[in-house]
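Data deposition worksheet. Section B asks for the primary sequence of the deposited chain exactly as it was used as input, without tags or linkers unless they were present during the calculation. Section C holds the resulting structure in token form. Section D is free text for depositor observations; keep each observation to a single sentence. Incomplete worksheets are returned to the depositor.
Section A, Depositor: J.P.
Section B:
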Amino acid sequence: MVGRGELTDAAWQRIASLLPGVDGRGRPWRDHRQVINGVLWRLRTGAPWRDLPERYGPWQTVYERFARWETDGTWARLLERVQVRDDSVGAVEWTVSVDSTVSRAHQHAAGARKKGAPEGDELEDPARAAARQALGRSRGGPTTKVHLACDGRGLPLAVVVTPGNVNDSTVFDTVMGELRVPRTGAGRPRRRPDMVLADKAYSSPAIRQALRGRGIRTVIPERADRKANRRRRGRAGGRPPAFDRELYKARNVVERCFGRLKQFRAIATRFDKLADRYRAGVHLASLILWLREPTQGPLSDRT
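Section C:
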């Protein structure tokens, strides 16, 4: 019997063949499905790892598997595989919406150990250390920002995590750089969407020029201050950028995507001390959204 929030049989069949196998050394793996369901329980509830129900096995085992698969890239690789599979059958809609959302950081998210700090920098500045772990200060306390690019169905294609006080437009190039879906056969990964939709936070000449240079249609409203500046300059201000209001209405898919991701309480509120762990949780939550979409068959190592 599948419990609430656990992997369905259909979802498990899609990813089972992609998970690490036994290499013949050491003790055998505890059942992958049981462990993943344990990680999903913690992601959905936001509870401490130590409170993991016994049906998922020892909490140390579940946490260590989650951390290990974050380190070796397994979570990100699984997400990539489902993206590749959908793109190979033409299911991915390449009208991409970009936006960000802020998540409050719980007090337990602060105070990560200095392991991984720059060499010879044992007395690293606290603000710098917090920035390395994607924690930013705001009026409400420490926050983390999740920057997302999703397809026309509202499914995550690229995820970037930064401190909560980082400006959206400064991360746009990084988000677009993370947009990468490999081909099933020969050829380079697809990196160029047909169209990019974003709100006024991304309304800068540099962003528009970069997208235009790549042949990507841009649907971004112009900010009021830029409109006023253009009118003030008269003919020297140039023509207003093209903007299609009807197409812009489709941008709400990214807002709905954030709403679905934040159904996982460990995404809506950050409890992880390390930015890499929190990002791995976002990757896993994104994977679940993809697995909930209809598919035409199991994934394989060829996709």
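Section D:
The first strand starts at residue 95 and ends at 105.
Strands lie at 95-105, 136-138, 141-150, 156-163, 195-197, 217-219, 269-270.
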